[in-house]
C-alpha cells in the first residue's frame, strides 16, 4: 500500500514522450482511474488549452482522463491573479490559448483601462507597441506575471526564442523581476494541491525532469519520484546533492498498491 493519498504527475516525458507513447505510464494512469485514486496531471505548457490536452490524451494515447485531472500553468496563472489581485484589469501578452482561458476568469481583460497585472507568455507575433504597453504598465506599478521562463523552442528550422526571451526584454527595460507561475516555482504547485484538496505531506510529486518537476516538489517540501523516461538521465544525478525521494526506470516499477 502506498503511504500517499494523492499524486501530482507531469505530462511530457512522464505520461508520454512527445508523440511517442509510454505504455507503463498509461497502465499506471488507468489504474489510478480504476481505483479512484486522486491525482492531477500538472504541466507548464501554456500553448494548449485544457480541452486540447484532454482531447490529445484521449485520442492518441490510452489515457481516458477528463478536464478535472489536468492543471496547467494557464489555470495556475488565473488562480494566482484571482487570489492575489481580485477584480484586476489584466493585459495579456500571449497567444490564443492563454487569452481564451483567461477570459472566463474573475478579472477583466480590457486594454483601454488602467492595467493592474501584465501577463506574458510566448507570443510569436509580438510587436514593439505591445511590448511598450507592457513596459509602461509595469513601470507604473502593475504586477508582472509569466507562465514559464523557457529560453528556446526546438522547431523544424532550428531553435526559436521562447517566452523567456520576451521576458528578458521586458525585464531589461523595467528592471523588474516577474512572478513565475510554472514548475519549479510554487504557484502552479500550490494551485494544483489546492484543487486536489490533500495536504502536501500526503502527496507525491512524480516527474521526469529534475530541474522542474523534482525541484518543484522539493520547493514545496513534498516527497518526489523521478522517473527516468524523459529529460533527466541517471548520470545527471551523480552531480546532484539533493536526491529525489525515489528514482525508478519506469512507472511499472512503482508499487502503487
Ligand atoms: Mg516532463
Automatic annotation (TrEMBL):
Mg(2+) binds at residues 10, 12, 208. InterPro entries: HAD-like_sf, HAD-SF_hydro_IIA, HAD-SF_hydro_IIA_hyp1, HAD_sf. The lineage of its organism: Bacteria, Bacillati, Bacillota, Bacilli, Lactobacillales. One of its GO terms (cellular component) is cytoplasm. It comes from Ruoffia halotolerans. This is Acid sugar phosphatase. It is an enzyme of class 3 (hydrolase). Substrate binds at residue 183. SUPFAM superfamilies: HAD-like. PANTHER family: 4-NITROPHENYLPHOSPHATASE-RELATED (PTHR19288), HALOACID DEHALOGENASE-LIKE HYDROLASE DOMAIN-CONTAINING PROTEIN 2 (PTHR19288:SF46). Transmembrane segments: none annotated. Catalyzes the dephosphorylation of 2-6 carbon acid sugars in vitro. GO terms for molecular function: metal ion binding; phosphatase activity. Keywords: Hydrolase, Magnesium, Metal-binding.
Amino acid at each position: 500500500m502506498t503511504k500517499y493519498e494523492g499524486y501530482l504527475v507531469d505530462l511530457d516525458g512522464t505520461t508520454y514522450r512527445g508523440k511517442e507513447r509510454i505504455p507503463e505510464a498509461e497502465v499506471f494512469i488507468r489504474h489510478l482511474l480504476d481505483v479512484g485514486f486522486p491525482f492531477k496531471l500538472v504541466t507548464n505548457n501554456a500553448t494548449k488549452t485544457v480541452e486540447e490536452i484532454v482531447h490529445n490524451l484521449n485520442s492518441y494515447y490510452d489515457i481516458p482522463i477528463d478536464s478535472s485531472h489536468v492543471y496547467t500553468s494557464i489555470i495556475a496563472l488565473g488562480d494566482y491573479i484571482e487570489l492575489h489581485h481580485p477584480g484586476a484589469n489584466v493585459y495579456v501578452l500571449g497567444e490564443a490559448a492563454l487569452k481564451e482561458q483567461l477570459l472566463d476568469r474573475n478579472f477583466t481583460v480590457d486594454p483601454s483601462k488602467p492595467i493592474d497585472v501584465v501577463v506574458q507568455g510566448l507570443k510569436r507575433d509580438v510587436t514593439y507597441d505591445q511590448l511598450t504597453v507592457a513596459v509602461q504598465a509595469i513601470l507604473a506599478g502593475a504586477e508582472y506575471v509569466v507562465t514559464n521562463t523557457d529560453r528556446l523552442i526546438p522547431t523544424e528550422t532550428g531553435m526559436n526564442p521562447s517566452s523567456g526571451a520576451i521576458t528578458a526584454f521586458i525585464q531589461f527595460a523595467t528592471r523588474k523581476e516577474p512572478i513565475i507561475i510554472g514548475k519549479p516555482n510554487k504557484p502552479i504547485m500550490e494551485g494544483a494541491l489546492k484543487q486536489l484538496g490533500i495536504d502536501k505531506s500526503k502527496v507525491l510529486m512524480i516527474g521526469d525532469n529534475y530541474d522542474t518537476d523534482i525541484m518543484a516538489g522539493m520547493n514545496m517540501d513534498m516527497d518526489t519520484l523521478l522517473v527516468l523516461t524523459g529529460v533527466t538521465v541517471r548520470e545527471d544525478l551523480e552531480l546532484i546533492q539533493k536526491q529525489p525521494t525515489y528514482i525508478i526506470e519506469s512507472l511499472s516499477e512503482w508499487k502503487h498498491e
